Amino acid sequence: MFTAILLDKNDDGATSARLAQLDERALPADGDVLVRVDYSTINYKDGLAITGKAPVVRSWPMVPGIDGAGEVIASSHPDWKAGDEFILNGWGVGESYWGCLAQRARLKGGWLIARPPGMSARTAMAIGTAGYTAMLCVMALEEQGVAPDSGDILVTGASGGVGGIAVALLANRGYRVVASTGRLAEADYLASLGAAEVIDRATLSTPAKPLQKERWAGVVDSVGSHTLANAVAQTRYGGSVAACGLAQGMDFPASVAPFILRGVRLIGIDSVMAPPPKRVAAWARLAKELDADKLAAITREIGLAEALVQAPELLAGKVRGRLVVNVNA
User: Are the C-beta atoms of residues 71 and 36 closer than 8 Å to each other?
Assistant: First the structure.
């Protein structure tokens, strides 16, 4: 038997979420690797799944948890054997396939990557999809030629998990980072992560003019909607914007003007289905480049029961940084 968060759909269509004791025989049979999950996380998508605020769950019942780290128990996949240490991010886990907010999971070996040497399961999940996505954004900006001497880099949603780790990573590489947040009381916290300047998200969250004063050499945006439109409109000639989230909305009420008059590049960042080589590269860099003290400042540990409580708080923007879930607590 193992403990898991279990989601069900009620007769009225609402989502119910509870802690449940499950038998390993209940795990889906289509995975080829049985794992012990030591740590997971609560990401924005997990919050949507647990609260039912958006239809991210594709089959019922469902164990949420798009991230997991732990150890392989048994495997019929050629790349994995008992005792191997793994990281899982995405691939529809926690949406279409049972996820990792549980002490056990049965997963497909092709979804897993090996944990970098010396990285604990807890550290991996303190980073989680948020940090992995932040690194994909940094890599995308670098691939577009955005260098530390190119100019200011804007990070939106900076008090959240993606934003906080993006600030830390960029600052560590010598970029001048401007952090946008709706919680200006977090200015000292963001400065401790490396932000050179903190601005109120209200300056970016209203309808955008097609072209605005050029400011940003690059942008990491986890917010979407008007915020992304304003960020693009303020990006300097030849600059790049990495878009990875939709906290404000899925819409993009913008103009083509920045793209055809300033050569701005908008890069979509997909962490869910990113190919394994890109994942391995991102995690290898995270292991080397993310400052342990800054990660500790971003992270708070909770148990499975508290994850149920924190999910709506996360959606309401009341959670700073990362929530790492000790599934055995």
Answer: yes
Partners of residue 221 on adjacent β-strands: 243
- Separation between Cα atoms, residue 169 and residue 193, nearest integer Å: 9
Cβ-proximal residues to 147 (8 Å cutoff; 6+ apart), any chain = none
Q: Is residue 228 within 8 Å of residue 258, measured between CB atoms?
A: no
Phi, psi of 159 (to 5 degrees): -80, -10
Question: Which of 288, 154, 277, 280 has the alpha carbon at shortest distance from 221?
Answer: 154
**Distance between start and end Cα atoms, the chain:** 16
51-65 pLDDT per residue, tens:
999 889 999 999 999
Q: Beta strand 177-181 with 104-107: parallel, antiparallel or unpaired? A: unpaired
Query: How far is 108 from 239, CA to CA, in rounded Å?
Result: 39
67 close to 125: Cβ distance less than 8 angstroms: yes
Q: Could you give the CA distance from residue 16 to residue 39 in angstroms, rounded to a whole number?
A: 23
Model pLDDT for residues 93-118, shown as the tens digit of each residue = 999 999 999 999 999 999 999 999 99
Cα–chain center distance at 157? 12
Q: Which runs of E-coded beta strand occur in 212-314?
A: 216-221, 235-243, 265-268, 299-303
Instruction: Please state, as a whole number, how many other Cβ atoms lie within 10 Å of the Cβ of residue 258.
Output: 27
Claim: this prediction has a pTM higher than 0.90: yes
